[in-house]
Fold each of these.
Amino acid sequence: MPPPNLSNDTIDDIIYCARANETEELFSTLSSTAQSTGANPQDVLASAVEEHSGSTALHMAAANGHLDILERILDYFSNPSSGRASSGAEQGNGEALVPAPVTAFVNIQNASGNTALHWAALNGHLDAVKALVAVGADLEVRNKAGRDVVFEAEGAGKEEVVSWLLGVGAEKEVEQSKGEEGAEEKIGEGGGEGSSKSVEEGVEEMELGEK
């Protein structure tokens, strides 16, 4: 199904509600727009991009720390059938699988190259940062100024966010290292003649999501 063709007024309403924390009005608009266009709320959200900044409702909620709106938006993508997230499927190791649509949406970059995580980190909204990272927000994405999320948070003096993000990055490096070591061990298993072991970015804080 092609993406819905939204009017500028509808896009402005969605972006404004997410920025101003108008929760009920936002989700009422999403529901009515989905019905009138024959689309689902996820497609409406993905198509509601502010013309000049290239920002989405998720950018606005993240920039302003509107956690309820942010989580409800993410829930639409995590569990499309109900519009609310469930506990999710699990991998064999017990870790929750993150649906591909939410990962793609959460990493959308605006005209300045900023993701929702950039704005949440820059403005020190730790709970929003955690919610975004939990569904696959990429810590390594750089904006057009060449800055990743840690650089933005550090430049804005958001030490709590910086500390948490660095901890997440360290954990990912450890997990990746363990995975590589495990792969090397499997290569060397068997003991036969054919077996062998493998050798081994400061900016000013934005107001209300405008930049």
Note: The chain is about 55% helix and 0% strand.
Amino acid sequence: MTDPATLTDSAEQPYDDPFRKTCLVPYVDPSRAPVPVQEGLKMLPFRRNIFYLLANAHGQFPHVAGLIGSLLDSNTRKIRLLDWQLVALRTTTILGAKYEYNINLPIAEAFEMPEEKIEAMGCPADDVLNVSIGPWSERDRVILRVVDEQLATYSNKPETIKDALTLLTHEELIEILVVIGTYALACRVVNGLKIDDDPPVPGLKDKLRKAIR
């Protein structure tokens, strides 16, 4: 069986990458990347393999990094931080993207998402609709309905959007749809290309609290 670490894009020279064991595409070597790509890789003060994988798309990555970076800052993110994480964790759970779930879970925990919500993240869609089941607030339920319908059908029922707009602004609703699409993209990339788990980050939650607001 071919060792993935020996595979290389034809446009790049191979290099010894200690982070790559399973990934089918090389991670970008920052020292060889264009400056806008290098800047995008600095959005967090620690390594995340997903960024080094997406950075192979030199033209698109700076824009994708800007989109992801906008979620880290409450000045540009209009939904609540835990709304963002609700969408992220639900999307990655439904799409079976363990890597993407695992890099978002510490964010949810660092900002005190209740444990009962984390434990219920994989609940059936019918449980979301039943207000007598689960730890969800009314706002949580309508966000989860939007997520579940989008992932199942790439659309939403008119009544779901009507209900959502009783609790969310137009800007918040559109932002939620953008977040769903962003995480669905990430899930496809990490699952399709067999991304490696990230190296451990000492003091991760403290670093996340400093990097995200």
Note: The longest helix spans residues 170-192.
Amino acid sequence: MPPFITGTIDILQGSISGNSSSSTTGDDDDFFSWDGGSFTFETNDFSAHIELEATVEPSADLLSFEAPLPDIGIPGFFIPGIGAVGPIFRPRIIIGTQIGSNLTFTYGFNLTVPDNSSILLDLSDPEDSSVIGFPNSSISALPFQSATSAVSLTVSASFRPELLLGISLLRSAVNLGAGVFFNLPTVSATVSQVAQVNSECEFVGGGGRGGDSTSDGIYSNSSSVTPANGNGNGNGNGNG
């Protein structure tokens, strides 16, 4: 199943502060000089199903790569006499692997963000930008799948979206840009080889006859998958 993201992101409120001055030549309308502002966004019914197939090369260290997804435009608005505001939600999926041989596998997660989660994007002081509710998102890993047997590796998957805000000021050569990025909970798994275990992956010894279940319920060669979770946030801005 291809990745999909559902839900709403709405602008609850926003403000831009600055000064308006008349042209000294009389040829232009008022000129707006920006010096700050803030915007608050809220999400509801927001969830993501991320299931990716990847082929990776051997690495002694944990290597990360990004699985690109298309940007999602959020309806913007025009402020008379000032300019246009255009938000963009940029989903980013980060996959990390540490493995001893080439491997093709499928892995991913289902994620749900609590309703009424909010994002404050502070244009005056980006360090004061914040997110509420997102760190409390629930996440569950999808089964790790690979056609290759007898493999040992560590794999992780995380959703690290960005909320970007572009402001195009009238009669100004400066376009403003600001954004907040945040790490939602991460899923990871360690896959290792085990032998002489039962269906609960408990060592029992004995003489199993192969990777499949035997009549005595013992596996002589099987894979153990150990899951784990974790999370964090950040922000940034710039002028262009």
Note: The radius of gyration is 25 Å.
Amino acid sequence: MDTLRSTLQPITHNLPAPVRNAATSLLGDVCYKRLILDIDPTDTPCLKLAVSKGLGIGIIGASSIVKIPQILKLVKSHSAEGISFLSYLLETASYLISLAYNVRQGFPFSTFGETALIAAQNVVIAVLVLQYGGKSAAAGAFVAGLAAAGYALFNGNVVDGKLLSYLQAGAGVLGVASKAPQIWTVWQQGGTGQLSAFAVFNYLAGSLSRIFTTLQEVDDKLILYGFIAGFLLNAVLAAQMVYYWNSPASAKHASELGKRPEKIAMGSTAGDSRTSARTKTPTTRRRG
């Protein structure tokens, strides 16, 4: 270790000012000295903080594209089959409240930055779902309502700190509840439709990572419990994605739900779906 330290210290002691300033702002003066200048990986608290910061930055980076595959699938197919608007409505409301709460509490951006990026992508998806469902007017009302709610939540003269704390507690419930309609939709249709596997599994990994970063950097049980509950339901949705990976709904399952078989088959065109439902052969289309 001494050999490695003597090799690296000439580099770590002469980092460019922008890099040094960024690392200091992330780790703090004490941990920057212990980990970067002294190169002491035995400092467990500082090491955990560094891992937490790294995960947080990684989550924020991934969140900038996590819903892009879902958006592309919707645009390409011109169909919102298998997508629950209620799920996105609840999740977006939850994220908007959490974003306002974190900003007004002054928590580190690395612990919540993905909230803003995912919320923006959720708005696009929700609008597309309404648009392809023939509800353009509702899409406009949805965006206008979010804008009004955002103004109120970020304005301390409209929503004070105490009320915002209550809303944050409710946001945790909303975040958990937002998964239920999507889970129900997947089960009801017997397949995942246009649901993106990339988004689902990234959500699962992200929510697990957020439990760790929250434990390390944010002393707020409301946020922690929300991430734990969200991870559990994300796990259910991921399990559904695996279970229905290449399996369209069978005619038997469709009849149990009172649905026509041709509307249940997933992963093909309308004509192919009818054929798939009659023959009960699984599609080879992969989720993405």
Note: The two ends are 44 Å apart (CA to CA).
